[in-house]
Amino acid sequence: MGQKLVIVESPAKAKTIGKYLGKNYIVEASMGHVRDLPKSKLGVDIDNNYTPKYITIRGKGELIDKLRKAAKKAEKVYLATDPDREGEAISWHLANILKISEDDTCRIVFNEVTKTAVKASIKEARKIDLDLVDAQQARRVLDRLVGYEISPILWKNVKWGLSAGRVQSAALKLICDREKEINEFIPREYWSIDCVLRKEKKKFPIRLSAYKGKKIEIENEETSNSIIKELEGGSFIVKAIKKGKKSRNPLPPFTTSTLQQDANRKLNFMTKRTMSIAQGLYEGVEVKGHGTVGLITYMRTDSVRISEEAQGNAKEFIENTYGKEYLPSSPRIYKGKKNIQDAHEAIRPTYVEITPEVAKENLTAEQYKLYSLIWNRFIASQMASCELDTNSIDIINGDYKFKASGSVISFDGFMKIYEYSNEDDENSVLLPELEENEELNTETLQGTQHFTQPHPRYTEASFVKLMEEKGIGRPSTYVPTISTLLGRNYVVREKKNFIPTELGEIVNNIINEYFKQIADTDFTADMERKLDDVEEGKEEWTKIVAEFFDPLRIAIEKAEKEISKVVIEDKVSDVKCEKCGRMMVIKRGRYGEFLACPGYPECQNAKPIVEELDVPCPECGKAIVAKKSKKGKKFFGCVGYPECKFVSWHEPVKEKCPNCNSYMVLKYSKTKGNYIQCANSECNYKEEVKKDSTEDK
């Protein structure tokens, strides 16, 4: 018998699978796509039923020759690209290149890179699913038509190199709409009245909630002071005490969206970084005592479903590790949201016995953090609920009612390994034992001014959540959509928040005026549902494309006639050009913003924008400037480099250490907030920072 050829997408996956299958199999990597639409032209025959014209991707010729030779020698070829639409399309292209018949059972898929799953997939080899291929083909053609038909209009009238995209345009509109909402928001003043009461030595806070049985709203300081005066003349009496029990259930295992959100909030990982790390964990890692294993299941999924086998393994692990009391009365089954593909399981560890601590020595720091997050979330999802003893107390003073609530964990359940907080936790306090009609002593009583706030700008985590809720894109498109918005300078990220640039606003206005459909979130979500219908064999992909493009063609013709040139003025800086004396302007290039002389081409002076700190270098006394490493990470160095080689990953501050007189640096802790610490590792003196000095940091 001859050898069998298995083609996967990446070398890491090829290495892992090769060890599972043994010497009767050769495993090669396609390195992703091998064919695509040409970059230099539209590549879609609009007049011939939207037929795509695929070409071999530049640079892939040698690899394809290698795969062809291997396929000719092989007794059987298996295509094991990723288990999604894009993976199915790559297999289809490979089958065309290698002249594999559509009737050949060459396609194998597995949700986890384990020996059992890989060997089982070969036994269950199937034909290439042409409905899946058509769904991906429809997406590719739609995106090409939007990009190549609308982008030239932006190049001509706004700026060369811009792009319009079907999903990115809807995403950009959401960010611009939120910014408009913030700018138009009119704050409204309101006041709260808070009191700290005391019973013996125990103190606890309460807040005014009602007056004569109705919710109270205090609009100004005058009203607040009047109420406080009344309260000072009365007594605080315990009116009612309600004690009870409350259960808190665990969250379901991760989907792509929830993993990206949690990794952003808890680990400070950007979505692109999260998916890159997850890809490595899925494809395989060498773990001492276990060999090369894929540590997690496929990481592009919108499903919270898990297999019975995985559920059984989790149950056994929980019982053996934490005890039977940590198991729920019946196995937990989670229901997914409407309009999901549900093609794969949720993201979970492939082997629960490979705990994060077992794998730690073989993982990078980032892999360990992400794997811990995935492992803990999955195990917690199969554990018993957390039980709380709750206290709710009504306290009256005349016609005014105050409320206080508290809770204490009586059984930790799933929170033994996975904690999460909610609004109730933040408002919960530890209350002393009280009795009805008991009078309490007043410690403090004060009114506080507040102003209503607009909805916050989107962070990467909240924006991924929004895209999922609105049905814009699918798990595989969240990262490229965000990357495009940032890469095209339509949006910038400031303190984790997305803010549209002037360029982004201009592009959004043009798209909304002339191509309203592609920026409409409902229309974009409906298109995703139609692509799902193509995948399920309910719709012809060319019909979907025609319904979309026919009205778009009319809009393109109108836009080409009506849109006039938009001039974007460069922002003038406060830096004078040392060569010609003009004030330099801020421009944006491939690697971000830089300073350039407006006298170009006569004067070609350009230099990077330097953020200078008002802090002397601890080694030579010159200024400290913020810089970026090759990987884009911010660090701080002396302006006198290379003569002075002082560098620090943390921002130096003016204050000197009171213990050893070394320089100090600014740091951040999730629990303590900002603090400063001595840079001398032998000292490590710490202190809280003054609020006014870090307010803008």
TrEMBL record:
Q: What is its EC number?
A: 5.6.2.1
Domain (Toprim): residue spans on this chain? 3-113
Task: Tell me the SMART domains matching this sequence.
Answer: TOP1Ac, TOP1Bc, TOPRIM
Molecular functions per Gene Ontology: DNA binding; DNA topoisomerase type I (single strand cut, ATP-independent) activity; zinc ion binding
Tell me what reaction this enzyme catalyses. Answer: ATP-independent breakage of single-stranded DNA, followed by passage and rejoining
For the Topo IA-type catalytic domain, which residue ranges apply? Answer: 129-556
| Interaction with DNA: region residues | 163-168
Task: Quote the catalytic residue positions.
Answer: 298 (o-(5'-phospho-dna)-tyrosine intermediate)
Which InterPro entries does the record associate with it?
Answer: Topo_IA, Topo_IA_2, Topo_IA_AS, Topo_IA_cen, Topo_IA_cen_sub1, Topo_IA_cen_sub2, Topo_IA_cen_sub3, Topo_IA_core_domain
GO-annotated cellular components: chromosome
Which keywords accompany this UniProt record? DNA-binding, Isomerase, Magnesium, Metal-binding, Topoisomerase, Zinc, Zinc-finger
In this chain's numbering, which residues are marked as the site (Interaction with DNA)?
A: 33, 139-140, 143, 148, 155, 300, 488
The biological process GO terms on file are: DNA topological change
Give the matching SUPFAM superfamilies. Answer: Prokaryotic type I DNA topoisomerase (SSF56712), Zinc beta-ribbon (SSF57783)
Q: Which family does it belong to?
A: Belongs to the type IA topoisomerase family.
Known role: Releases the supercoiling and torsional tension of DNA, which is introduced during the DNA replication and transcription, by transiently cleaving and rejoining one strand of the DNA duplex. Introduces a single-strand break via transesterification at a target site in duplex DNA. The scissile phosphodiester is attacked by the catalytic tyrosine of the enzyme, resulting in the formation of a DNA-(5'-phosphotyrosyl)-enzyme intermediate and the expulsion of a 3'-OH DNA strand. The free DNA strand then undergoes passage around the unbroken strand, thus removing DNA supercoils.
The record's listing under HAMAP family reads: Topoisom_1_prok
Q: How does it assemble?
A: Monomer.
Name of the protein this chain belongs to: DNA topoisomerase 1
Q: Output the lineage of the source organism.
A: Bacteria, Bacillati, Bacillota, Clostridia, Eubacteriales
